[in-house]
Amino acid sequence: MDIDLSALTGLSDDAIVIIYRGNSPKYYSESLLYAHIRNNINDSGLFNVIKKCPAKDGHLTSAPYYIRERKGKWCLFDYMYAIRMLYEDFNAGKCVLTVHGLN
Fold it and tell me: Structurally, how many domains does the chain consist of?
């Protein structure tokens, strides 16, 4: 899994691309993919993020998961969650998560 975190440093871009590499495992659930994305971001040492259900934070969405910066400055989510499975896009080569500022 290869993640370009430059979009998160200034929040200038509106999305990050997560690229499948040959040595990356295949994923068969959204929860597991989000957990591994969270772990990769946390392992980078640049950010401290959590994976959570947005409705539990009070957001009016039916998206199943999102990755939120612990202090609530920004989040990553799949805005097309209702019409696709994110892990299928990742397994096919890459997936895109939208960056949304929460301030």
Answer: 1
Calculate mean pLDDT across residues 80-98.
90
Domain that holds residue 28: 2-101
Place of tokens 């994976």: 51
pLDDT at 11: 47
Tokens 């202090």 found at:
71
Degrees to nearest 5, angle at CA 36 with 32 and 38 = 115
Q: In whole angstroms, how far apart are CA 49 and each of 2, 21, 38, 69, 74?
A: 17, 23, 6, 4, 10
- The answer to whether 97 and 13 have CB atoms below 8 angstroms apart is no
Mean pLDDT of the chain: 84
* CA neighbor of 65 nearest in space, from 95, 28, 37: 37
Q: Which residue has the higher pLDDT, 92 or 102?
A: 92
Query: H or E element: which one contains 77?
Result: strand 74-77
